[in-house]
Amino acid sequence: MRGFLFLLLLASVAACQKQPKGPPSADASSVALPAEVTPTLGGLDPQAEFADIRTRVVPTVNARVPAALRDKLQFAPQFDAYNRVIALVPDSWVMGDAPGKLQPGPNAGLGESTSMTFGSGCDGRCAPKDWAASFDKMEVKSLPVQNVETDETIGNNGRLVVARSGAVRYVAAGIWKPDSARYFYCRATLEGAAIDALGAFVGACRSLEVHRWQ
Predict the structure, then answer these.
(1) Which helix or strand (DSSP H or E) is residue 6 part of?
(2) Phi and psi of 5, rounded to 5°?
């Protein structure tokens, strides 16, 4: 009987040793990130994508920044959240309270309401439509405008508007294609010292470069 009990005990121990003890430990490179923080650049190399615009456009835009502001305002290329469009934005600004919105730091001295936003819009369903009319409705007529200072075309399918309301300046730029599913925009709201760099913000918004139209 004692021999039988001893064999039964050995069988139980062996069975326990075969049971899985949970998943093996993994280092950070093998742990899947939550969807909201998973990098979205995929196979893109941002530095390679930005190389041309850094050489061709960035110096011209930064040259429009007044000397007194160059220590706190320099523009650099950045993708939107969907890697569809590249915009030139102030490289020291931080994310604001809306997607694609950037604001200067609290001690930058560039005006309380100063901000810059870029991205894409559909004006309803994302499908080809009269994008010039959509841009006018969504980006221009939504401005609290007292006076339009500049209203000009960007190529054959784009528009740039500079407007004033009280002590605030607004920049609204957009580009599109007739058969695209969306238009792309750049907006800037400038107050206080940031208004002195209006020319730089206009140049930055004019320089939108689309990476993917759909």
Answers:
(1) helix 2-18
(2) -65, -35
Closest CA to 119 of 186, 211, 209, 190: 186
pTM above 0.85?
A: no
Q: Do 129 and 123 touch, CB atoms closer than 8 A?
A: yes
Which of 41, 61, 57, 59 is closest to 211 using CA atoms? Answer: 41
Residue 147 makes CB contacts below 8 A (sequence gap 6+) with 163, 164, 165
Average of per-residue pLDDT across 54-76? 96
In angstroms, rounded to a whole number, what is the distance separating the alpha carbons of residues 118 and 116? 7
Strands 209-210 and 85-90, bridge-based pairing = antiparallel
Backbone dihedral region for residue 109 (phi beyond 0: left; psi -120 to 50: alpha; all else: beta): left
